[in-house]
Amino acid sequence: MKYFLVAGEASGDLHASNLMKSLKEIDREADFRFFGGDLMLSAGGKMLKHYKDMAYMGFVPVLLHLQTIFSNLDLCKREIEAYSPDRVILVDYPGFNLKIAQFVKEKLQIPVCYYISPKIWAWKENRIHNIRKYVDRMLCIFPFEPEYYRKHNYQVEYVGNPTVDAIVGDAFFTESFNEFTVRNQLADKPVIALLAGSRKQEIKDNLPFMLSAASVFRDYQLVIAGAPGIDPDFYRPFMAQYPAGIVFDSTYRLLQQAKAALVTSGTATLETALFRVPQAVCYKTPLKHLAGFIWRHFFKVRYISLVNLIAGKTVVKELFNEKFSMKNIREELNNLLNNKQYINNLQSEYQEVIARLGKPGASDRAAGIIFSLERRSIRS
């Protein structure tokens, strides 16, 4: 069969590439066209647009690139129509992908599968109306999402979480601490990992505070997880005042060796929990009074970290907005390093979160559902 995929960000590229590999296992005739990235390209098929030419985050960047965004939408529609695939697979990236879903549903009557739900449970809940109309199968990766969608009278399927697959499938578990430090030219001291985000503004806002807060724990070395696509030179001014190492393309290796971590929100909080590393979630928000207003009035969730969202309660401390301070970060980090009962309780809570996520195999389960979807099952 022929599959057209749309992934507009780095995480979507990763998860879509694994989905493509799983589809090839059950469909030897699988042929792919896609908007995506290098990982999808390595999985096979023809790339029509790289996500780096699509990913505009925030109100102002979107306004400045409206013409490019509309041009990309038009190109995507034309390519889908010309290719006439058996399935269209959309991966997260809702601002773009829901428009594509509408076009495919109304004009082409091709089954639309959505892998990795838009986070409508956090904000922009009104997107449920378009999802109901234009998406034939929604495949979710968080265990709390099916219940949320049921409240909106829409059936979805939980396939498991691909982050579990990525970690279980990695080949670094046998790496020793000494091998890790020698490979990355680090000191022979226990590690505090700093995961300061994937975008420059996040790093600029959070990393200086993380470095300063953690620097008082002199028996430990600080190691930064360099973000994909960020030049190493960008980090150097932040590291000039504090001794710290940095690793690139090695976040999982870093977490495997870390004693504790300071982490911004996002998938990194879940990855850290899967490695059972004690963590504090630190997120500095510019204009904190405005950010607080937006959080209270526009967001529909109680937590910013995936760990707490999955648990449905506070498992890891969330130090953001008015709770973000040097004092609070240092106090929490001290507990994570030195309070044995605190650490044991956290590990027990982590185990419950991991159990809720379920077994590996998200990509395989998603591929099976997509492959078996028949045209007659398209929503009317």
Condensed summary:
With 380 residues, the chain is of the alpha/beta class. The protein has two domains: 2-162 and 360-377, Glycogen Phosphorylase B (Rossmann fold, 3-Layer(aba) Sandwich), CATH 3.40.50; 170-357, Glycogen Phosphorylase B (Rossmann fold). It contains 18 helices and 13 strands.
What is the CATH first-level class name of the largest domain? Alpha Beta
Count of strand segments: 13
Strands of the widest sheet, in order across it, are: 3-2-1-4-5-6-7
| Total helical elements | 18
Classification by helices and strands? alpha/beta
Structurally, the number of domains stands at 2
Question: What is CATH's topology name of the largest domain?
Answer: Rossmann fold
Largest sheet: 7 strands, parallel
Structure characterization notes:
- The protein is globular, with a radius of gyration of 21 Å.
- It has 18 helices and 13 strands.
- Residues 375-380 have low confidence and may be disordered.
- The chain folds into 2 domains: 2-162 and 360-377, Glycogen Phosphorylase B (Rossmann fold, 3-Layer(aba) Sandwich), CATH 3.40.50.2000; 170-357, 3-Layer(aba) Sandwich (Rossmann fold).
- By secondary structure, it is of the alpha/beta class.
- The chain has helices at residues 10-26, 38-43, 59-64, 66-83, 94-108, 128-134, 145-151, 162-168, 177-183, 200-214, 232-239, 251-257, 267-274, 288-298, 306-311, 326-338, 340-357, 362-372; strands spanning 2-7, 31-36, 46-50, 87-91, 112-115, 137-140, 157-158, 191-195, 221-226, 245-248, 258-263, 279-283, 318-320.
- Strand 6 (137-140), helix 7 (145-151) and strand 7 form a beta-alpha-beta unit.
- The longest helix is centred in the N-terminal third of the chain and has 18 residues, at 66-83.
- The strands form 2 sheets. A 7-stranded parallel β-sheet has the order 3-2-1-4-5-6-7, sandwiched between helices.
- Helix 5 runs parallel beside helix 6 (128-134) and helix 10 packs across helix 16 (326-338).
